[in-house]
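#structure-requests
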Amino acid sequence: MNVRLNSPRALVLALSAAGVIGAVGAGAYTSANAVGSPTPAVAAPMVTMPDFSAITTRNGPAVVNISVTGTMKTSMEGVAGIPGMDPDDPMFEFFRRFQGQMGPRGKQPLQREMPVRGQGSGFIVSADGIILTNAHVVKDAKEVTVKLTDRREFRAKVLGSDEKTDIAVLKIDAKNLPTLSLGNTKELKPGEWVLAIGSPFGFENTVTAGVVSAKGRSLPDDSYVPFIQTDVAINPGNSGGPLINTRGEVVGINSQIYSRSGGYQGVSFAIPIDVAIQVKDQIVATGRASHARLGVAVQEVNQTFADSFKLDKPEGALVSNVEKGGPADQAGLRSGDVIRKVDGEPIVSSGDLPALIGQKKPGTKITLDVWRQGARQELSAKLGDASEKANAVAKNDERAGGGKLGLALRPLQPQEKREAAVESGLLIEDAGGPAALAGVQAGDVLLAINGTPAKSIEQVREVVGKADKSIALLIQRDGDRIFVPVRIG
């Protein structure tokens, strides 16, 4: 974890104070010059700051420092093992790396285990020693030590770890420990004050504060978690520590930051406590956490797709591929469907879908609100288990395009159909104009256009002729399927 705090709150407070002065001054001027009864001035509401010291005093003792030790394998390559070559020679580094990769006489280099140490944070959720932290804090750890604020240290046991949500549960042999109260993430609002307590760079019980920037953020490679975004300073060692609201309740677990420099740049992310508690309860009961699986690949719905599929606004998760025999396939989902709601919960961004599905238990029955070929449909699905088969939920990037179609097409030969594992489709022999700008390439297989299977060149011409602003092409390339939006008007 890494972070740093840069906030214009001082300026905001200064402007607020100026607003109060202005309002009072204007009121006095009106009162002094009014004919008849003076109108009392209405003072602007005062800006009050939360008492972070009281929250810290009350909650600090339940936040712990976590030290881990483990090992990693390193090659025993030697820089001095290149006789007769000057270290300043431009080719020295090349041969050094080559020797390190191959070892003497082309053999693999010798390896040895080197000790590795790390630090993180955590917090106590049960007086008998249950502690929550990040999975990446204790990953590959051979020994985990928990240090309390009263300087007592305990050897901790890792009860379980879930990499999909980055949650780990520890247990120490102690009783009557201080604990933190748990809040409700659904009640959390953007702009609300929050603070973090942790051990950045090993500085125990460090307090940083900020505001909630947004909720429900989906991040690349973290599709199971609808993150809380804040501007609270999070740095290495803060990982696993609590994010606390002004009522002293834990609303999240600080997990990671967004940074181009490697240091804090004002954007940090926390795992909602609701997600963490679900995982914790499963790990305590069974030693592992399970997640549901729908079995679809989805991508974002942009304005071009919305125009193509006649959606009122660019929201939802566009299904680009359905896993054969999976829960989605059995429920009747198809490529080109746009999932707009799950059990009444709106899907605004495509990242909302995997986060929502991943929090449900395998075997759960859900209701999907789907947009298909210009009409709303309702489907029911029984979710599978993500641990039984790798989750096929993926978020693909859309490609932009514009103008006319510009494709040279021909029917697939029987052998090409078998190689591509498709029943129908058209081979794209050449792509030019807006189709090429949209990312379509020669050798792609056109499977569908605006959700309709592409069976003939005449059919494609007909669909393009009826289209208004844009069309959506479902193509297959190297075994992967993706929708590509192409503007034609």
